[in-house]
Give the backbone structure.
Amino acid sequence: MYTNFHKMMEDAYREHYAVGSFNWYHYETLKGIIEAGEETGRPVIASFGAKYLTNIDLDTAAALTKVLADRSCGAVCLHLDHCKDKDAIIRAIRAGFGSVMYDGSSLPFEQNLENTREICEIAHACDVSVEAELGSLAAGAKSHEGSADDREVYTDPAMAAEFVRETKVDALAVSIGTVHGMYKGTPNIRTDILEKINAAVGSPLVLHGGSGTPEDKLLACISRGIAKINVNTEISEYVMAHTKALLQEQSPHLSVLALKQKEWVKEVVKKYIELFCNRA
Ligand code: G3H
Ligand code: ZN
């Protein structure tokens, strides 16, 4: 079933679990994510990063997802991840995306708030959900989102409350110590800050940088208002490691490798789906 993520977020926040938001880059990653949701009986967010537009355009991404989601008995939301370009966001809304992330986190607070408010008005009029971000994440190793000059700026609880109140955003991505990519050192996940943000905001929060985050920390975040958790790097790393191992032994037809890659995507996505709904 093809949907936006508003109800997904409300249900997850109320019942203290998180919905996995898994990045996809080609047909096999998309199909693996949707099949993992169907086989676990859990909602999934198929997250398409704006950076992958070089491979798949927005209309094709929406058409592919709709066909696969409509055949699935599970709830699937197609989400545009990390987009700073308001025109691209409007094109994604027109293409039929279920949700969009306007990433104004690098802008001054007032400008991020104003842009997000404008996008929420447009998106909500089209029954499309909106995620925004306040604070910013450092980039870890092998990150496909961040860059070396990404600075870690923790989200301020009072500013987060004002931001959500003024924009009516469906979910707010926060920065509390996770990184995009794999951790270079010991993760320092500030659940104390998250607790203050959740108490101030009182609505669904999003954790970026899911890959490599210790499972006990993920569960601690879920019990403190995180209703959506993004995973990208680990999906690629897991599938590429298995692909390399396979290619050392054999040289299969590409169609055979594609099916195996879809199964490897399902393995890592199912691991996170089960973890995210394991109430803390
Ligand atoms: O937006 C995507 C996620 O934040 C990806 O983070 O690559 O650390 O899992 P990750
Ligand atoms: Zn992210």
